[in-house]
Each structure stands twice: as structure tokens, then as C-alpha cells.
Amino acid sequence: MNQEQLFSIAEGLTVVLWILILFWIGRWIRNRYYHESIQRYFYAGWGFKIFFALIFALIYLFILGGGDINAYWDSATALNKLFLNNPTGYVQELVHTDRLLGVTYRFNQGTGYPPGWIWREPEAWNAAKILSVFSIITFNSFWATTLVVASIVFFSSWLMVYRIIIYENLNLKAVLFAFLFFPSVTFWCSGISKDSQVYTLSLLLMYQLFRWLKWDPKRTVFRLLFMVVISALLYSLRQFVALAIIAPFFLAIAARYSNRWSKRPIILFLFRGFIYVSLVLVFFVIANLDRTQVLIQEAQITQSDFSDNPIYTGAKYEITPSDGSISGLVTSLPQAVFIALYRPFITENLGLNFIVNGLESVALLLFTGLFFFNRHLLKNLRFMFKSEFAIYMLTFVLLTAFMAGYTSILFGVLVRIRALALPFFFLLLSLREPQITSPT
Fold it and tell me: Is residue 66 scored above 90 in pLDDT?
């Protein structure tokens, strides 16, 4: 990355231009998605996202020497120059990358070459392609792109907060903290990174799924096509996250229909029995599909590579090995989920990089204790399993946490991948049955 360009006059002018554009967009969103109880948090939440995106960039550029953020930006810059030199070639590259032809088929000294590990890794290269679109509209301005990415993350988060506050009976402060002010989530998922793209697309997909189910009665073909596009983009970036988002939605649908028969216990019992048996059968069918076996093998390889390959340095954790079978994975589930949601512990002394994560783990353990050691536990659980959104969150957290804990091995990887699950996990821990007050 050209360090001089980061502080050039052209860079500054582009940043000013995009500040004006984003401020206009932000005001429109604030007025369009207005709710009295949350409006005063709009600019604070937006500023929080931008602040952490800038901190993320400064740490990686000037303290850690670039890392992934440098590689992704260099890739986006190469694609940007490809767009200027050969627009048709750029569009073709966006649609399909033919690695048999080699990197020199599209790129040359004039465009520059993307880092080899980015270009060779399909998910990383797809993230670079998405980033290149923002690079083009910001005239290859690093700081303007950072502002745009952080703002899109915030706008997506705001949409979730807005709908949850209106349609779900959840604690207001918990919702605001989970989606707007969660420190580690904001740090890892607001800057120039693949994690920011995964987080944003995940929120947008969940938002559209629940609008379709219960948050908005309008069901249009355009919305359906939008969901298909988001799903395809998310699948191209991180396959298991796309599956972890879509699969629990069928449970939410089942919960939606079962709530309609709450006053007809026999029909409700038969319906739930049918759903549970069907889910077990579907689970075994999916588990034995060739594609599922490929994903399991890839997870095994990733786990082994992070554990044994000396090029992967940094703090690591250990997890009981599994043979990769379905029963073996189910056995590994509790340990993997616990690691993903609660580690690193503050006592593990892994360095300054993990202090915030350690403090968050302490807080999550405390909230977990408050949830389970509560005299209204059974009522709260009953309330949870009556809520379509709560059932969805629980299933999504378990699936995401399992994959994060099972495959990451490196704490540096774990805290990034599990970040997507933490807001929903925190909401589950803060869930309480509403107290019915008698009228005076």
C-alpha cells in the first residue's frame, strides 16, 4: 500500500465528499426508520462504528504492519486499475475467476498484482472483489472506503435494531448494546475486512427473512430476489455462515405456525412431534450428502492446518480431536461452543490484543449465571421457546459458535469468526419474560 497516498490532498477531498454523501444518506435512514425510543442513539452508534473502523485501520497499518487489511486493499486497488484499463475484463473477473489461466491473464504491471494468497483463496478473492466496488466509487480512497464500509455496517445494524424494538419483546438497552456498541464485534466487523462484509450481509439476510416471516406483511418478488442475491454473496464469502443463517429459519417458521395452535393442545402436540421427527430425518439426510461430507472434511483440514502448520503463529487453544463423523461432531459440540462463546479467559494472559475479549468473556459468563440462576428461569425458557426470533437466535448461535470453536484453533481467528454470534448470544442471555402489571 502506498503510505503517501493515504495522506494526499486528493484523499482528503474524497473523504470530505463522502462525509457529505454519507451524512445525507444517514439523515434519510434516520427519518425513514424512526422510533422515539432509539433515535437519540443514532449518531452515537454511527460514530462508534466509524471510530472503531479507524482504530482497526490504524492498528493494522502502523502497528502490525498491514496484515490482512493491506492485502485486501492491494487486491481492491489492482481490481480498480483493471476496471479503468479494461472494464469488460473487470466485469468478467467479478463474475468468474479462471485460475487455470493464472493471475497474469487479467493483471499486469500496469494494474499491479493482487497478493497471491488472496487471489488463490476463493473466499478471500470474492471479498476483494466486493471491496473493489467501493474502491471504484471512492476513487480508490482508503479512508473514504473505510467510512463507507463502517457506515453500511451501521445502517444494517440500525435496521435490525429498529425492527427488533418494534416487533420483538426484548430489552431495549440489550438490543442497542448488542448491535451498536458491542466493542469486539464493532472492532472486527466495521473496517476493511472480509469479516465486515460477512457481518453486514448476515444482518441484511436475517432482516429480510424476518420481514418476510413476520416483520412486514408485504411479500414481493423483488424482496425474494434480493434475499437470493444476499445469500449467494454470503455463501461466496463464508459458506457455513450462510447455512447457519438459512437453516434455523425453518425452525422459526415452525414456531410461527405452532403459536397459532397454542389453544388447541392436541393439534399443537401432533404438529410439534411432526416437526421434530422431520428435523431429525432432514438432519441425517443432509449430514450424509456429498456436499456436507466435503464441508466436514474441509473443517477437519482447517483444524489440522491451524494446529500443526508452523506458519500459523499466535496463541492457540486445544480441542478434543474428532474423527469427522456425525456422532464425533455432535460429541465435540459442547466443547467447541463453550470455547467460541467464552474464551479467551481474562486469566489466560494472551497479551494486550485479547484484553477486551477477555473482559467480554467475564461479562458473558456473568450474564450466563444471571440467566440460569434466576427464580423465573422456567418462565424465561418458556417465553424463549415461544418466540420465533429467540428460537432462531439460539439455533444460529449454536451453529456459528460450533464452527468457530471447532475450526479456528488460533485465538486471533476465533475472536473474528465468533463475533457474528455474540450480539445474538447477548440478546438470549438478556431475554426475560415480560412482567404483566395489573392496572391501577
Answer: no
Nearest by Cα to 402 from 336, 338, 324, 343? 336
Rounded mean pLDDT, 92-100: 92
Nearest to 314 by CA among 351, 356, 355: 351
| Domain edges within the chain | 4-159, 290-440
Question: Could you tell me the pTM of the whole model?
Answer: 0.90
Q: Per-residue b/e over 29-60, b at no fewer than 16 CB within 10 Å? A: bbeebeeeebeebbeebbebbbebbbebbeeb
In this prediction, residues 163-179 reach a mean pLDDT of: 94
Comparing CA positions, the residue from 203, 126, 193, 116 lying closest to residue 415 is 193
Per the listing, cell 479503468 goes with: 84
What are the grid coordinates assigned to 68, written together?
490482512
What's the confidence (pLDDT) of residue 218? 79
Q: Are 356 and 182 contacting, i.e. CB atoms less than 8 angstroms apart?
A: no
- Rounded to an integer, what distance in angstroms lies between the CA atom of residue 303 and that of residue 414? 12
CA atoms within 13 A on the CB side of 37: 11
